[in-house]
Amino acid sequence: MSADILNAQHNDDTFENIWQELKWRGLVHVSTEEEVLEKALSDEKLTFYTGYDPTAASLHLGHLVQLLVMRRLQLAGHYP
């Protein structure tokens, strides 16, 4: 991927925080203690993890949601 494409990627500035953007994009369906998570995502830079095996034969389009959330969090300054 060229540097121009990567530099052009950013989160939508119309949202107050990344949590609101993820919910608007339909990338969050349900979560426990949403207020706590929203505050943590706004107040500090978090390290996040998602579990899947990218070399598995069963990797499918459904895993894309995890990748989209990871990329949005990374663009917001959090660490994979």
TrEMBL record:
Q: Name the UniProt key words of this record, in alphabetical order.
A: Aminoacyl-tRNA synthetase, ATP-binding, Ligase, Nucleotide-binding, Protein biosynthesis
Q: Which Pfam families match?
A: tRNA-synt_1b (PF00579)
The record's top EC class is: ligase
A single Gene Ontology CC annotation of this entry is: cytosol
Q: Which PROSITE patterns match?
A: AA_TRNA_LIGASE_I
Catalysed reactions listed for this entry: tRNA(Tyr) + L-tyrosine + ATP = L-tyrosyl-tRNA(Tyr) + AMP + diphosphate + H(+)
Record has Aminoacyl-tRNA synthetase as a keyword: yes
Question: Is Aminoacyl-tRNA synthetase one of the keywords?
Answer: yes
InterPro entries in alphabetical order: aa-tRNA-synth_I_CS, aa-tRNA-synth_Ic, Rossmann-like_a/b/a_fold, Tyr-tRNA-ligase_bac-type
Q: What GO terms in the biological process aspect are recorded for it?
A: tRNA aminoacylation for protein translation
Q: What is its EC number?
A: 6.1.1.1
Q: Name one GO molecular function term.
A: tyrosine-tRNA ligase activity
Leader sequence residues: none
Concerning Gene3D superfamilies, the annotation shows: HUPs (3.40.50.620)
Annotated protein name in UniProt? Tyrosine--tRNA ligase
Upper classification of the organism: Bacteria, Bacillati, Actinomycetota, Actinomycetes, Micrococcales
Task: Identify the coding gene.
Answer: tyrS_1
